[in-house]
Amino acid sequence: ALAALPPQLRDLQPDQLARRLRRPAKGTAGGDAANAIETIALTAEQESARARISSESGPFLLFGSTGSGKTEVYLRCVQEALEADPTAQALVMVPEINLTPQLEERFTSRFAPRFGSQAVVSLHSGMTNPQRLKSWLAAHSGVARIVLGTRMAVFASLPGLKIIVVDEEHDPSYKQQEGARYSARDLAIWRGREQGAKVLLGSATPSLETWHASRPPTAEDPEGGRYVRLAMPSRIGAGALARVRRVDMNQQPRRAIFSAPLLAAITERVARGEQSMVLLNRRGYAPVLHCADCGWKSDCPHCSAHQVFHKADRTLRCHHCGYTVRVPRACPTCGSPDIHSMGRGTEQLEEQLGDLLSEVLRPDRTPARIARIDADTTKAKGSL
């Protein structure tokens, strides 16, 4: 909970904190009540889900396929809550920091004309301390009507909380694994019950816990689960799900990172001036260094994880506790210089892809530009 409280407030004495919180937050909650919120027509599935959320207490699981319009249902439910009560507030949670800018832009464009430019704020660990203080105080004072944030936002001070939205509720990022361990999704359910706020969980692939908790009543189980499951299986418009092709890497050359079909597809897109995205859930150059002579591995001396090899600065870093050392010239155990990297990370993918596409040109005869996006390249503010 302390992580959500701005650092400027953590060390204050109770009387000092009380005085600081009585000070009015900067900005104004006002907009122009005469400005009608522009909305779009809902599909039959969206309208059915909205109507049930409006008339029932929940908690709700909005089980909608990709492209079914879950975000529009979130927007409409938040709108109803704010219009019904001039002091109402909403909390909208997403699993990753990188998802907040686009969501904030969408919520701001929808609600700022009616409720004011300060009505929507973000709250996450990627903000500076002054930014976090401003957002926290705006939420605490009621100036902010909508708070968008990651798991830490579940601890935000929202005295007028009426609705909580947890988008992609299945995402493991909602679980805090270090320090005070908690599940922000489960805390959202608890907080909704404590403050009388409706809770809406959204996912195209719900967690097993939520799926079980939202099971419909049957003859064998007449009560069903604790949650209300609202299905939205249809995609909006003529869009179709992407075609998925699985490639058996056991049939590819042993040390190949990219399969032949994948490399051919990327090459074709580059030659046409299009873009491609390659995803890998491991940053760094390689997950571990290994000694071929004695079997030594770059284990972290402070925890049970491996130290990841980062080639850019020749370091071994533990991504759990942060312990960092320079890459040794020889094996620390036997002195052998025969130490090699095992596995691959985003740095290695960037390097290999650059080599493989070095002769491929775009339609304007320029070489392909490869950008790596991970926690190492997006640390600086605005780098993304």
What is Rg? Answer: 25 Å
Q: What series of H and E elements makes up the topology?
A: HHHEHEHEHEEEEHEHEHEEEEEH
Q: Please give the order of strands in the largest beta sheet.
A: 3-4-2-5-8-1-9
**β-strand amount:** 15-25%
Provide the residue-averaged pLDDT: 86
| Class computed from helices, strands and strand pairing | alpha/beta
Helix content: 25-40%
Distance, first to last CA: 28 Å
CATH class of the domain at 7-232: Alpha Beta
Count of separate DSSP helical elements: 10
Question: Could you walk me through the main structural features you see in this protein, from its secondary elements to its overall organization?
Answer:
By secondary structure, the chain is of the alpha/beta class. The protein has a domain at 7-232: Rossmann fold (3-Layer(aba) Sandwich). It is 29% helix and 15% strand. It has ten helices and 14 strands. It has helices spanning 7-10, 14-22, 44-55, 70-84, 100-115, 129-141, 184-195, 208-213, 260-271, 346-356; strands spanning 60-64, 89-93, 120-123, 146-149, 161-167, 175-176, 182-183, 198-203, 228-232, 288-291, 307-310, 315-318, 324-326, 339-342. The strands form four sheets. A seven-stranded parallel beta sheet has the order 3-4-2-5-8-1-9, with helices on both faces. The longest helix has 16 residues, at 100-115. It is globular. The two termini are 28 Å apart. The mean pLDDT is 86.
